[in-house]
Specification:
globular, about 350 residues, two-stranded antiparallel sheet, binds heme C
């Protein structure tokens, strides 16, 4: 028995050593492949960004096979795994969708920068659609039934309306006034700009002053007290928690009340997203209900119809219904007659 065990151990050791002799690990690959000078523009990878993704845990070798003498052997690297091998459920949904024949996974994703929706902004998510669906064109077609289509598309990324995902979160992004004019545009702050604001402290300290890991209602209102002087504001986006890959027209997203009367319950979960050094985002939870708090929450996010104050809701809905009777009537009519049109 003892001899048998020794024998196994010896075989195992041989196998391990044998591998170590030639197998290049992810760090070795990155040693060359993060250097443009070494591998050329087209073969270079953003190492910091890659390392923060789930694919880094899989390692380069999970998808690529290179020769022992790579790159000197001149042998072409082999792709040993496709997206479908590891993401079968998504691949199945996607292949059956309208887009299945029009775009491949790689049209919207870079295997070396694969991030979960929580680590991206809505703007980044929309970039993958805008390559084929031009933004001015989309705004025009949607404005036929959707009031303030531009506001909606800025705050509700395409996938919030065009995928079956039913659970949403509100994420607030820090924006900065461009220039000194009172009505100047606001733009997303990047990591460097935010770092300067907090004098090199953790970027989350901008709102999470006590560094408790959560942004409280109090911290939120402190931030807004100072916002005229600081030129900073928050911009809210409603994004799906997970992204279903059926990408289609959802009948229930015609319905304004799907979002606007969803009530506070549906939007209790909110976060503040802070840009990370590598261009992705990290999120901190916001105290429950804070975003929608009618009086002390963020003045930049007012979901008509979903605040906790009944009076404000009614006023909001009246304004909505009064001013928008036409588009709503039209939208509802189109919604009701959708079967006939098809
Ligand atoms: C000593 C530096 C070096 C290391 C280490 C290295 N590579 Fe490369 N790699 C290169 C260079 C240089 C090229 C471009 C070669 C060419 O164009 O002929 C390249 C090209 C590639 C290509 C694309 C071109 C092709 O051959 O198809 C892939 C994929 C690749 N490497 C993957 C890897 C993986 C995976 C690892 C780790 C297991 C790795 N490399 C380790 C230098 C390196
Ligand atoms: C989850 C799978 C996956 C992982 C992990 C992965 N790659 Fe890739 N890689 C791909 C795919 C897919 C392509 C595109 C190949 C094609 O179009 O033929 C690619 C392309 C490349 C290329 C060619 C240039 C380019 O960007 O198209 C290089 C070089 C490369 N990978 C190196 C690496 C290195 C080095 C690592 C580890 C740090 C790595 N890859 C990790 C899937 C992966
Ligand atoms: C070797 C297996 C493997 C391959 C091949 C692979 N992935 Fe992944 N991928 C994973 C794992 C494991 C995760 C972690 C989260 C999960 O299970 O979905 C992940 C995560 C992701 C994420 C981010 C989601 C998250 O929660 O972090 C995206 C986007 C993604 N993959 C896209 C792709 C695309 C596009 C391809 C093809 C180019 C691909 N993957 C190929 C294993 C793989
Ligand atoms: C590579 C190009 C391409 C990309 C990228 C793309 N689309 Fe499309 N999309 C198309 C084409 C082509 C059609 C028309 C298909 C048809 O009518 O047969 C379409 C149709 C649609 C439709 C109408 C489907 C229906 O129900 O009739 C919606 C909605 C849509 N796309 C949303 C999106 C969203 C959301 C994204 C980003 C996540 C996206 N598309 C990215 C090419 C693209
Ligand atoms: C508030 C929800 C909502 C948002 C946000 C939204 N859509 Fe739509 N979209 C719809 C609905 C509902 C329809 C069906 C309209 C119709 O049939 O007239 C539609 C129709 C479409 C169509 C097919 C018909 C057409 O009008 O061309 C495409 C393509 C499309 N959307 C793409 C996009 C893209 C890309 C984005 C992001 C830039 C986006 N949509 C954002 C709800 C939305
Ligand atoms: C038309 C654009 C588009 C295509 C094509 C596409 N995706 Fe995505 N995918 C997205 C967007 C947008 C997201 C949300 C942002 C993100 O995580 O990248 C996403 C998210 C994901 C996620 C994370 C899902 C989650 O909820 O955590 C995975 C995994 C993924 N995609 C894999 C794939 C695979 C595999 C394919 C090919 C079968 C594919 N995608 C094709 C646009 C696309
Ligand atoms: C998918 C969810 C969703 C749907 C569907 C939707 N909205 Fe919105 N709507 C939002 C979000 C999110 C905002 C942005 C709130 C903010 O940032 O202040 C918004 C903003 C608005 C605003 C502007 C409020 C302001 O502060 O300027 C009006 C008006 C509005 N929606 C009316 C409608 C009408 C009418 C419909 C139906 C035709 C509709 N919405 C459908 C989510 C939605």
């Amino acid at each position: 028995m003892k001899r048998l065990l020794l024998c196994y151990a010896a075989i195992l050791a041989c196998l391990l050593m044998g591998q170590n002799l030639w197998a290049m690990e992810t760090e070795d690959c990155l040693g060359c492949h993060t250097e443009v000078d070494e591998v050329g523009e087209s073969n270079a990878i953003d190492g910091a960004l890659f390392s923060g993704t789930a694919h880094a845990e899989e390692g380069c070798n999970a998808c690529h096979e290179v020769g022992e003498e790579h790159p000197d052997d001149g042998e072409e690297a082999q792709l040993v795994a496709t997206c479908a091998d590891c993401h079968d459920a998504i691949t199945e949904t996607y292949t059956a969708s309208v887009h299945g024949e029009n775009a491949s996974c790689a049209d919207c994703h870079n295997a070396h920068q694969a991030l979960a929706p929580v680590s991206l902004s809505g703007i980044q998510m929309n970039e993958s659609c805008q390559g084929c669906h031009g933004s001015t064109e989309v705004e025009e077609t949607h404005a036929r039934w959707l009031p303030q289509a531009d506001v909606h598309i800025r705050s509700v990324p395409c996938v919030s309306c065009h995928s079956s995902s039913e659970k949403f979160v509100i994420t607030l992004y820090v924006t900065q006034r461009q220039g000194n004019r009172a009505y100047a545009d606001y733009e997303l702050l990047n990591y460097d700009q935010l770092s300067q604001r907090v004098d090199g402290a953790a970027v989350t300290a901008l709102l999470d002053v006590d560094q408790s890991g959560e942004v409280s209602l109090e911290e939120l209102s402190e931030f807004y007290k100072d916002s005229e002087r600081s030129g900073l504001r928050l911009w809210a986006m409603m994004t799906p928690e997970t992204v279903d890959h059926d990408f289609k027209t959802m009948d229930n997203r015609w319905d304004c009340t799907y979002c606007h009367a969803a009530g506070p319950e549906a939007m209790q979960d909110s976060f503040v997203a802070f840009p990370a050094e590598d261009g992705s985002y990290q999120r901190l939870p916001m105290q429950k209900g804070a975003t929608l708090d009618a009086l002390f929450g963020t003045p930049d996010f007012y979901m008509v119809g979903s605040t906790r104050s009944k009076v404000l809701n009614i006023v909001g809905l009246l304004i909505l219904l009064g001013g928008l009777a036409m588009p709503i009537g039209h939208g509802t009519l189109r919604f009701l007659t959708r079967k006939n049109r098809k």
